[in-house]
């Protein structure tokens, strides 16, 4: 073929040559397995013969393979598009025959929208029907009989700690206040009615894991991660009561349970309050974290439980160690004393809890309760001859002190159980869970209710402990959790038992 301007054409060809080499190198990396059929005897080189090109034959073969693949892809897409068009036309004809209106100017979009809306409506209705049928039996056992009578009413939220709250307790003497023990190294005393912080104890150098009040005097007992337990005195002045908030909700499971965003709770902590920094007595004998402590009946002795696998019995007046209670194979998790007798129960990670009897000064017997398969997080006495134990194995067991071989009732739950409490008058068990729920059962294991947990009330993280207050005519339940707040609830016991 004649070429005009041979010299300039030669220089242009030379300039294009490096680019052609780079393209040939990039194309040679991609190998194909083309199955395109060709007439017998005709090779790719023959098909390209007669075409004016400076490309090597192997490179031209690769290009033809690639272009062939692209052409087949476009052909497949074109055929598929034609099939879709035919289906759309068919649907439009059927919808027009049924008398349905096609929305908008594009009949294709209108038909598709009508069909999708119809299918979505059917699916939505089916899901609603299935959900209502599957939950109706569960919800029915927790609804109040009348809408005006709420089983659980939010009393007050107690916000001020800067870390999770492990334990809480209510004083047994006047003035009645709430005490909370927190991982922020402090214990706070609160006005139950107003939610105002009254006093701070800041004498510990570690997390405050437990708080219990003296049965007759204004003294508190706290256990800490600093391997000590402290006894300290307090004096508080209650503020004037405020009108109760108009916030109530029935204890049922069909409430809006959308969760508030986790994070810090509202409020910057308590304002300037009196602070106690020096303990009246410091109990030092443990070699590990002191996880719990409690007063023996009469208040002259205290018992402490530690991660060093031992429980210690101390004299309050002298702070002297009286007995070391050993026998658990792993760390202790809790200890509790009987309200009227010299009995102590200790729970442990070794899946057991032990009953220690100090009624006879010369004999200190011990009984081991085996029945759980995981850590026993707490074991508490009831007013009668029962012990209630909770565990990480998601069960709560009720035991008879006169027959300790097997539990008389077993409550199975869907989450690990933390520090439980039992009301003295009605013997109702309050179960705090890792999944932020708080459930109420009677002593025979019958489920009574679940505290509300919605976007307006309830804990946002693990619930660590519960405590009852039945000193006045109403019955209050207090809960605390790792969301840094404690919550007070007013429980309508007559309505709760009537629902049972």
From TrEMBL:
This is WD repeat-containing protein 37. Residues 1-49, 242-271 are annotated as: Disordered. Its main location: cytoplasm. Residues 16-25 have a biased composition (Basic residues). Keywords: Cytoplasm, Nucleus, Repeat, WD repeat. Residues 251-269 have a biased composition (Acidic residues). The lineage of its organism: Eukaryota, Metazoa, Chordata, Craniata, Vertebrata. SMART domains: WD40.
């Amino acid at each position: 073929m004649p070429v005009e301007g041979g010299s300039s054409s030669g220089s242009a060809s030379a300039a294009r040559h490096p680019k052609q080499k780079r393209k040939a190198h990039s194309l040679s990396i991609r190998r194909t397995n083309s199955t395109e059929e060709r007439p017998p005897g005709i090779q790719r080189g023959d098909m390209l013969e007669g075409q004016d090109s400076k490309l090597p034959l192997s490179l031209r073969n690769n290009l033809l393979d690639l272009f062939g693949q692209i052409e087949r892809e476009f052909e497949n897409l074109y055929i598929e598009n034609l099939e879709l068009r035919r289906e759309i036309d068919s649907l439009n004809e059927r919808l027009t025959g049924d008398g349905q209106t096609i929305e908008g100017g594009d009949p294709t979009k209108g038909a598709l929208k009508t069909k999708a809306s119809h299918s979505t409506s059917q699916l939505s209705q089916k899901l609603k029907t299935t959900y209502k049928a599957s939950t109706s039996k569960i919800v029915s056992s927790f609804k109040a009989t009348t809408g005006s009578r709420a089983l659980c009413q939010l009393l007050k939220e107690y916000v001020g700690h800067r870390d999770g709250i492990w334990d809480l307790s209510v004083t047994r003497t006047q003035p009645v206040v709430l005490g909370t023990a927190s991982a922020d190294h402090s214990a706070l005393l609160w006005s139950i009615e107003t939610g105002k912080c009254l006093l701070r104890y800041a004498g510990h150098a570690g997390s405050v894991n437990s708080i219990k009040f003296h049965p007759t005097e204004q003294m508190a007992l706290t256990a800490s991660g600093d391997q000590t337990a402290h006894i300290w005195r307090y004096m508080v002045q209650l503020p004037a009561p405020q009108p109760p908030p108009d916030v109530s909700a029935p204890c049922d499971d069909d409430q809006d349970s959308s969760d508030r965003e986790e994070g810090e709770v509202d409020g910057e902590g308590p304002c300037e309050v009196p602070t106690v920094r020096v303990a009246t007595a410091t109990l030092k004998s443990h070699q590990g974290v002191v996880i719990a402590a409690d007063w023996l009946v009469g208040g002259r002795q205290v018992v402490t439980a530690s991660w060093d696998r031992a429980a210690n019995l101390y004299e309050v007046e002298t702070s002297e160690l009286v007995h070391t209670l050993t026998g658990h194979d792993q760390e202790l998790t809790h200890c509790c004393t009987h309200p009227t007798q010299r009995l102590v129960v200790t729970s442990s990670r070794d899946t057991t809890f032990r009953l220690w009897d100090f009624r006879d000064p010369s004999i200190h017997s011990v009984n081991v309760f085996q029945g759980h398969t995981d850590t026993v997080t707490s074991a508490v006495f009831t007013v009668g001859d029962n012990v209630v134990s909770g565990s990480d194995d998601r069960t709560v067991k009720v035991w008879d002190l006169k027959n300790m071989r097997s539990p008389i009732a077993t409550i199975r739950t869907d989450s690990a159980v933390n520090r439980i409490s039992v009301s003295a008058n009605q013997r109702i068990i309050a179960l705090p869970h890792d999944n932020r729920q708080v459930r109420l059962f009677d002593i025979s294991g019958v489920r009574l209710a679940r505290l509300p947990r919605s976007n307006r009330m309830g804990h946002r993280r693990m619930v660590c402990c519960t405590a009852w207050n039945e000193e006045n005519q109403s019955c209050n339940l207090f809960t605390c959790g790792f969301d840094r707040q404690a919550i007070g609830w007013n429980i309508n016991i007559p309505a709760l038992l009537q629902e049972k």
